[in-house]
Amino acid sequence: MKQLPRLRIAHLPTPVETLPRLAAILRGPNLLVKRDDATGLAFGGNKTRKLELLLAEAQANGARTLVTTGAVQSNHCRQTAAAAARFGFDCILVLAGQPDQPASANLLLDRLLGAELVWTERAQRDQTLRQVFENAWEVGRRPYLVPYGGSSATGAAAYVLAFQELLSQGVQPDWVVFASSSGGTQAGLALGAKLAGFRGKILGISIDEQADVLRHRVAELANATADLLGEPIRLLADEVLVNDEFLGQGYGVAGEAELEAIRLFAKHEGLLLDPVYTGRAAAGLIALARSGTFAPGEQVLFWHTGGAPALFADAYRSLLAG
Ligand SMILES: *Cc1c(COP(=O)(O)O)cnc(C)c1O
Description:
alpha/beta; 2 domains; four-stranded parallel sheet; 43% helix; Rossmann fold; six-stranded mixed sheet; globular
């Protein structure tokens, strides 16, 4: 496999831990967790791994300013702002939302980390992003576009490496379950699994997309990643496992299932999930365990992708306090 240039930011390998108390409560499979919430950069998360490769690419291109976009409480934007600070880039974040809201949680951290914020409407986001990028280019700021969710082939390649890291820890679970949204994490894990001849299942719990759409996105991204790594291998959309039964009321709307998952992981394992991604993915894992989807004695690894700072967002704090 071709080696890609990489900056070292993340604390790796992230630990793999057992979840015996939660497993007992669910009376289901053996549970493990891969702690990518502990990647170490400004509260961590899965974007840190992707940024190791993306920032190396930015440096190689002579970039001086990172430009990216996301929701107001984007973990991706927060980690990008932190990585920019760490390696001396400027950072411009195009955020979809209202400029007058009080800065809590990830938004507070974006400001603290020194990012410049540009506000836009959700429908105009891509257009605003393009304008901001072009302006930065014209005034000589040498911008580099960090893709949405860090999910280009370069970003996804970080999760091929992450899958190799997991195998090097001597773990061979029957299932790997995680939150899947822009698809880079799943594309990397699925490709890493296929390259290694891994027999377990790589199951993405969709956060905000129909299964079919996400399956195709993941396959396309995985194939672009395989090309980048010089690996003559193809992933078909039909081979990509996505469950979209847990979309609830849509992106960022935490319901009873997410709140229960957050409470169970906190109370029985001292682990913090987030209301948007890992809470939803864990709610999916819990529902699948209860419905007997995992066979008795199987080992299920929950890949924790981070996000816990959102617990302190105004919108969720009051929900969780009850
Ligand atoms: C971005 C994110 C995800 C989704 O990862 P993708 O690679 O975009 O699919 C999952 N969990 C958290 C906490 C995230 O911030």
